[in-house]
Amino acid sequence: MCGIVGYIGGRDCADVLMDGLEKLEYRGYDSAGIAVFEKNARSPGGTISTVKTRGKLKCMADKLAAEGKPEGFCGIGHTRWATHGEPSDINSHPHSNGRVTIVHNGIIENYTELKEFLSEKGYSFVSQTDSEIVACLLDFYFDGSDPLRAIMETVKELRGSYALGILFKDFPDHVYATRKGSPLIVGLGDSEYFIASDIPAFLKYTKDYAILDDDEIVAIDNGGVKFFDVHGIAVKKQIHTADWDIEQAQKCGYPHYMLKEIYEQPDVVEKTLDSIITDGVPDFSGIGLTDELLRGVKRVFVVACGTAMHAGIVARYAVEKLARVPVAVEIASEFRYMDPIVGEDDLVILVSQSGETADTIASLELAKSRGAKTLAVVNVKYSAIARGADMCIHTLAGPEIAVASTKAYMVQITVLYALAFRFAYARGNILESEMKRLTAQLYNAPKAIRDVIDNKDECQFIASQLVNVETLFFIGRGFDYALSLEGSLKLKEITYIHSEAYAAGELKHGTISLIEHNIPVITVATQRNILAKTVSNMEEVKARGATIIAVCRKGTEFAEGTVDIELKLNIGDELDDMLIPLPTVCALQLIAYYTSVLRGIDPDKPRNLAKSVTTE
Ligand code: F6R
Known about the structure:
The longest helix has 20 residues. This protein starts with a strand and ends in an 18-residue tail after the last helix. By secondary structure, the protein is α/β, with parallel strands linked by helices. Helix 7 packs parallel to helix 13, helix 9 runs antiparallel to helix 17 and helix 13 packs antiparallel against helix 14. It contains 19 helices and 27 strands. The radius of gyration is 26 Å and the shape is globular. 55% of the residues are buried.
């Protein structure tokens, strides 16, 4: 959601900013802009040139070509995902009032009050954004000589969340930044420095970076980088080195990131397993998640959003089945405001790819404040959730660029299965031999996923049957229901086809009235213990004219006439039914991907969506 990039160094700034913004495109945006100190503006009162426009970066590139690219070595850039005010040239960032130019990610909740205050002081506004207020407030507090003080005074007044990149006209070749609740990192190159919302924006130039913490301020000039706390006291920061390489953040010949990320799944599952399995069993004692702790847990909450929350539903079925501990799966935006009954006997698991999702961060804080033990399952190292939780398991999916999450979900459920096995063992519900057997089965998943990818033609065929439909349903029971939720979300977010997922037995309690002739019902039917029940539900919708697409194990037989299209996964006894979601979700991802492509949509950047939801 919004991307920020800033640069100071010896390269052409506009090129670096545009390149960085392109790497942040995955975050979702509807307009873009840059502001650059003109290279001849190295004395106070220098010129800052701003170019911004509604639309994608291609529109920016066209505008830069038409109007001339600002020439300079220091500047800030932004991709905007509209919150206050429609996507338009005027509402695009950077915003400026003459002396101060800013880019902003987040939401200023008290912007109406601040606008009134600033209006009384004689300020006027050109955009409908909350962000422009910040430029004016900075100007109000700026005495012409002390940018740091202006920032300190300004942030005292702001409520909400923000990451800010700031240029002061009187301080050419200086970039300032601060943040609260929205991510911002500082890239440290060789005599060149960056600010960015995420690592890929500068990975091409440096792997070294520092994380700006909430309320900290960074001041950067050609001489280097200085960090300050909210009181203006200098702080020393830890330098991290990114373990991603540039290829991981590129398409590498694939038509889309989403397809590349689907193909990477067998490898990232293996890598993630290797990081949590010791001597053939899951072992989390290194992060403090000991058998003793697991034995003492009375209840588990899995709190997350979207796809990560769907991973929690898989976890619920696995943990309850094996460890016999009650598990509640909660949507983070609900959990944070529902005054949950949660306390010190509970384990709250926060699942997140980005580790920066605003509602999940707030849920983590709430759980901590109630004394619960908190465990993060997070893909992005050093992200807010990874750092904030008592314990953290890192999933090793590598950078996930496509908006629709695929490989991150895959490794989330991999880790959560392993956790379920250890949980069950720690509580005496399964023997070590069973924990070993289940772990060995998890290691069979990569091959099974590869097999689904090798047989992608079948998913392509199903996609060709869905390309013109307006609405469809996914149904399933147990783990198949968890998969239906995820398959349906994946499909609707990147194809814009209306899709709903139902527990198969629930459909006839209302929704079956929507079933008409030829409405596709994708039935996930991999769970053999309840197959007969699922088949009954298939028959019910078939009798009302639905087209049935069944996703099942090899060897599953349906009565003649029940199923219109079968996708039989080539999976035998190497995977228990409990683990079959691993390859099955890959098939559902491929169906969504190919349907999106056939409908002429870019699956990597679906409309209205942002990769990292840093506002609530
Ligand atoms: C859907 C998708 C989203 C995210 C959700 C949480 O494909 O990617 O539903 O899963 O926004 O994001 P993270 O995992 O970063 O907390």
